[in-house]
């Protein structure tokens, strides 16, 4: 018989949030694959658990090489527990490659549900929660980041992102540029920890706030785009959106067409606004 792969959610901050099953799985697994073995030791000590199984590291740098080894353990009947530093493995953390390989070999895969920064931030944001999409981390390069944001500029569902604190100001500024400075958002910092903070407001204002420097683990929740035709978009805003697309590499014709679709107006309206702005600037 093959073994079982267990994906274990770990606390995102407060150790008291650890699910009861986590301690039992840590104590009983034959193999524990941990993103950071030092953090794992702190976790087991806090939970009063002494693992009996073999502990191996499993992080981004060795994920590809270690996956076949763990699959062999599973095929040999072992119960393999996968834990990451915080939250659920494979959600912007190592794990997807191992899950896919295990599924391919018909190995049973299960999970110990645990705290989620995505759902916690979404619930605390004060923004619509009935429909949402998780976008993970944005690209580090400015051009790629803008391109990724443009892809979801018209997305109606609430958007959830992870971000590093030292890139937060640039990310919020890019969001304000693409989505509009008045789009509502919430920056959730240090969730469930001592210095937990949820900063809510318009993207433009949040970008100014973040420019002063922000620390900690960050989750950003952004309001979805308004329904097409539900708001009146000014000529200045139409021109701004065209410029964003042009700066990202799109030809003006395609940029005008894309903005017209997003704003729910005829292409001629956007074209006339761009021409008028050009004429005004040349005077």
Write up what this structure looks like.
The protein is an alpha/beta fold and 283 residues long. Helix content is 43%, strand content 18%. The chain is built from eleven helices and ten strands. It starts with a strand and ends with a helix.
What kind of sheet is the major sheet? 5 strands, parallel
Strand elements, count = 10
Report the principal-axis shape: elongated
Distance between the termini: 79 Å
Helix share, percent: 40-55%
| Poorly predicted segments | none
Mean pLDDT value: 93
Strand order of the largest sheet: 3-2-4-1-5
DSSP strand content: 15-25%
The H-and-E topology, N to C, reads as EHEHEHEHEHEHEHEEHEHHH
Treating each run of at least 4 consecutive H or I residues as one helix, how many helices? Answer: 11
Radius of gyration: 23 Å
Query: Helix/strand/pairing class, anyone?
Result: alpha/beta
Provide a brief overview of the structure.
The protein has 283 residues and is α/β, with parallel strands linked by helices. The chain is 43% helix and 18% strand. It has helices spanning 20-28, 37-47, 63-75, 96-104, 117-125, 142-151, 168-179, 203-210, 235-247, 252-263, 267-282, and strands spanning 4-8, 31-34, 54-57, 79-83, 108-112, 132-137, 158-163, 184-189, 197-202, 218-222.
Entry keywords:
single chain; alpha/beta; five-stranded parallel β-sheet; 18% strand; elongated
Secondary structure layout:
Layout: E1 4-8, H1 20-28, E2 31-34, H2 37-47, E3 54-57, H3 63-75, E4 79-83, H4 96-104, E5 108-112, H5 117-125, E6 132-137, H6 142-151, E7 158-163, H7 168-179, E8 184-189, E9 197-202, H8 203-210, E10 218-222, H9 235-247, H10 252-263, H11 267-282
Parallel strand pairs: 1-4, 1-5, 2-3, 2-4, 6-7
Antiparallel strand pairs: 7-10, 8-9, 8-10
Helix pairs in contact: 3-4, 6-7, 7-8, 9-10, 9-11, 10-11
């Amino acid at each position: 018989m093959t073994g079982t792969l267990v994906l274990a959610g770990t606390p995102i901050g407060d150790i008291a949030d650890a699910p009861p099953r986590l301690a039992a799985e840590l104590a009983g697994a034959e193999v524990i694959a941990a993103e950071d073995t030092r953090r794992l030791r702190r976790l087991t000590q806090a939970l009063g658990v002494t693992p009996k199984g073999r502990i191996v590291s499993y992080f981004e740098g060795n994920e590809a090489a270690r996956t076949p080894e763990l699959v062999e353990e599973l095929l040999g009947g072992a119960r393999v527990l996968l834990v990451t530093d915080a939250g659920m493995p494979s959600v912007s953390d190592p794990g997807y490659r191992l899950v896919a390989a295990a599924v391919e070999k018909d190995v049973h895969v299960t999970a110990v549900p645990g705290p989620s920064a995505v759902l916690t931030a979404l619930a605390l944001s004060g923004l619509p929660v009935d429909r949402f999409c998780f976008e993970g981390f944005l690209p580090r390069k400015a051009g790629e980041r803008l391109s990724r944001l443009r892809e979801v500029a018209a997305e109606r569902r609430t958007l959830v992102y992870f971000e590093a604190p030292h890139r937060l100001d640039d990310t919020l500024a890019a969001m304000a540029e693409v989505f509009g400075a008045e789009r509502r958002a919430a920056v959730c910092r240090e969730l469930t920890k001592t210095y937990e903070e949820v900063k809510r407001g318009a993207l433009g204002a949040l970008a100014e706030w973040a420019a002063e420097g922000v620390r900690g683990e960050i989750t950003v929740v952004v309001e979805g785009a308004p329904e097409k035709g539900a708001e009146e978009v000014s000529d200045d805003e139409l021109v701004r959106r065209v410029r964003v697309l042009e700066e990202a590499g799109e030809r003006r014709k395609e940029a005008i067409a894309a903005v017209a679709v997003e704003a729910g107006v005829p292409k001629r309206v956007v074209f006339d606004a761009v021409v008028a702005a050009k004429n005004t600037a040349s005077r």
